[in-house]
Design brief:
It comes from Natronospira bacteriovora. It is a multi-pass membrane protein. The chain has 163 residues and is mostly helical. The protein folds into two domains: 53 residues, no CATH class; 101 residues, no CATH class. The protein is globular and about 55 Å long. It starts with a helix and ends in a 13-residue tail after the last helix.
Length: 163
């Protein structure tokens, strides 16, 4: 039991830092409850042991997602406010490289949250994506690589192999 609690500490710390940054150091009681709920959902719904999640992968994904969301928002605003038709609708199919259902779920959800893109359909190993910025296939591949890294365990340290 203590191993499971200890395994959640890095994720809890990252979530609390995010809460601190986004809330301006307000509402710590609510933030703590939100983090505890997030940890419960993560452990129950993803069916992943916390020690199988990569904190480094989660941080890389978070940085990429925040930066792409910001840049995507600027791009959508520019397209909406500039004269003429600047919408380059594209519908394309991405073939998943991973069979990990959690990584696939992250890709599908993140795409739908990013400005200008939408996950349209999933069929077998194929994801249909709609974009207003033309073919963003390279970005979808980058997103999938980052999502895969979230679910890779960190390298085992030499001193912990004998446990």
């Amino acid at each position: 039991m203590f191993d499971r609690i200890a395994a959640n500490i890095p994720l809890a710390a990252v979530l609390m830092l995010l809460w601190f940054g986004l809330s301006g150091n307000q509402g710590w009681l609510f933030g703590t409850a939100a983090v505890l709920c997030a940890l419960l959902v993560t452990n129950r719904l993803l069916h992943q042991d916390p020690e199988r999640l990569s904190l480094a992968g989660l941080l890389r994904f978070s940085a990429w997602f925040v930066s792409r969301s910001f840049l995507g928002g600027l791009d959508v605003a520019w397209r909406a406010l500039s004269p003429g038709k600047n919408i380059d609708n594209a519908l394309f199919t991405h073939r998943f490289k991973t069979a990990n259902p959690s990584a696939r779920t992250v890709v599908i959800g993140a795409l739908s949250l990013m400005p200008g893109t939408l996950s349209v359909a999933v069929e077998d190993d194929h994801l249909t994506v709609h974009s207003i910025a033309g073919d963003v296939h390279g970005q979808v591949e980058s997103l999938e690589a980052l999502a895969i890294d979230i679910f890779r365990p960190e390298h085992v340290h030499k001193g912990s192999e004998a446990r």
